[in-house]
Amino acid sequence: MPDRSRAVSASDSYDVVVLGAGPVGQTVAGRSRAHGLSVALVERELVGGECSYWGCIPSKAMLRPVIAVSDARRVDGAREAVTGPVDAGAVFRRRDRYVTGWDDSGQADGLAGMGIDVIRGHGRIEGARRVVVATADDEQRVLTARHAVVVCTGSTAALPDLPGIAEAHAWTNRAATDSSDVPRRLAIVGDGGVAVEMATAWQGLGSSVTLLSRLHALLPRMEAFVGEMVADGLKEAGVDVRSGVSVVELHRPGGTGPVTLVLDDRSEVTADEVLFAVGREPLTGDIGLDTVGLAPGSWLDVDDSCQVRGVDDGWLYAAGDVNHRALLTHQGKYQARMIGNLIGARAAGQPVDTSPWGAHVATADIDAVPQVFFCDPEAASVGLTTDQAQRAGHRVRAVDVDLERVPGALLYADGYRGRARIVVDLDHEYLLGATFVGPGMAELLHSATVAVAGRVPIDRLWHVVPCFPTISEVWLRLLEAYRG
């Protein structure tokens, strides 16, 4: 792959140095450039990061054909046109197209066109405002930041310390999204978003999938009914969903052939591949945190402006997964916008607004985090669940509506099945959270996010008129149910 970065001297100074050129790092760099600051963006893998090549983009490229076929099968007149299985080879070619064949030159060129210096290599902090980059040709580039260093190195899949896991050659999300061979049998260990999305995708591509959840519910951070409906959808698609079980050891003699998973009840599951989707850990182990008094390999503790605590003079920031506030690409980019604007304001000597919902704080990381899982049915939520709101001390009422009551459901399926919930703060009569599960829910979520982040009063929501017939009429049904 050609190196598209600008050559720099052995020692160079910038206003801002960013470690990690995924979507979050690119956003920090872009916002800083918009304020007229010089920026060095350091990347040791592909410019575009995990999301572009092994996460959000390839997984959704794989999921859409599977769900499109499922959607067609739920509509009279369309299901008759579905005469065969999903073409796995065509799906992989589609995925490869959306990840540009894992060639990042287009993204690197785009950044260069913005005046951002992309420096390829492993960046390591060496004291205050100083980053040393080890390049592929064994040279070192010393970068000094006049205003800020921003850590956007992301996270990687965590693997449990189990007997036999090394010889099992377990998949993580990377293998699950860049493999082009369909395993006859795939075991997936996990209960979160990666687990349910990959179970949906690979079952649809032709694998016989067994999903093993340690908990008794899928998607445990959402309302309980979501996990129940997603589990039902997976089972209907043919996935063997087993809850309340744990893997205690694995066997794959010689690292080849089938892998055997031994469960805590001593039963066994045999598969051709096993995917672990059991959490993430920060990519901070080898970026020099110890040189500024921080623990290597740790999540970075930040304030609401994403400045790293425990570092003198406030020059170190962390955005995205590494600060553990919300491990979601869109939330990391939101933080990045705040950081870039804050660095720009401080560099120009302008006032800084750190009030709640101010221009330089990431308030929505606490109160209005949206998330979507593109399983079948789709699961979407924003803000607090009923339980979370109650534990936080709010006096709330949860209001539920079955989505089959909404006329616009006919656009998605005959016999549509889905459910929506809003969590209303009874003392202020605005929404603390909203949850949707069912076909087509992903595009419904932003309206809920506006309502939650904006704390739109229930009285005002009555004047937000949904088009007929659309699934957005669920808002009218929810308000009617709340008022009785």
Outline the fold blueprint.
Elements: E1 11-19, H1 23-34, E2 39-43, H2 49-54, H3 56-73, H4 88-98, H5 105-113, E3 117-120, E4 122-125, E5 130-134, E6 140-151, E7 155-157, H6 165-168, H7 173-178, E8 185-189, H8 193-205, E9 208-213, H9 224-237, E10 240-243, E11 247-251, E12 259-263, E13 268-271, E14 273-276, E15 280-282, E16 316-318, H10 329-347, H11 364-367, E17 370-373, E18 379-383, H12 386-391, E19 396-402, E20 419-425, E21 430-437, H13 445-453, H14 458-461, H15 474-483
Parallel strand pairs: 1-2, 1-6, 2-3, 6-16, 8-9, 8-14, 9-10
Antiparallel strand pairs: 4-5, 5-6, 7-15, 11-12, 12-13, 17-18, 18-21, 19-20, 20-21
Helix pairs in contact: 1-10, 3-4, 3-8
Can you give the helix content as a percent range? 25-40%
Termini separation: 62 Å
Number of helices: 15
Query: What's the CATH architecture name of the largest domain?
Result: 3-Layer(bba) Sandwich
Number of domains: 3
Portion in beta strands: 15-25%
CATH-derived topology of the largest domain:
FAD/NAD(P)-binding domain
Instruction: Please tally the β strands and state the result.
Output: 21
Structural shape: globular
Largest sheet data: 7 strands, mixed
* CATH superfamily heading of the largest domain: FAD/NAD(P)-binding domain
Mean pLDDT: 96
- As a whole number of angstroms, the C-alpha radius of gyration is 24 Å
State the name of the first-level CATH class of the largest domain.
Alpha Beta
Content-based structural category: alpha/beta
| Sequence stretches where pLDDT stays below 50 over 5 or more residues | 1-9
Keywords: FAD, Flavoprotein, NAD
Family: Belongs to the class-I pyridine nucleotide-disulfide oxidoreductase family.
InterPro entries: Class-I_Pyr_Nuc-Dis_Oxidored, FAD/NAD-bd_sf, FAD/NAD-binding_dom, FAD/NAD-linked_Rdtase_dimer_sf, Pyr_nuc-diS_OxRdtase, Pyr_nucl-diS_OxRdtase_dimer
Domain Pyridine nucleotide-disulphide oxidoreductase dimerisation: 369-475
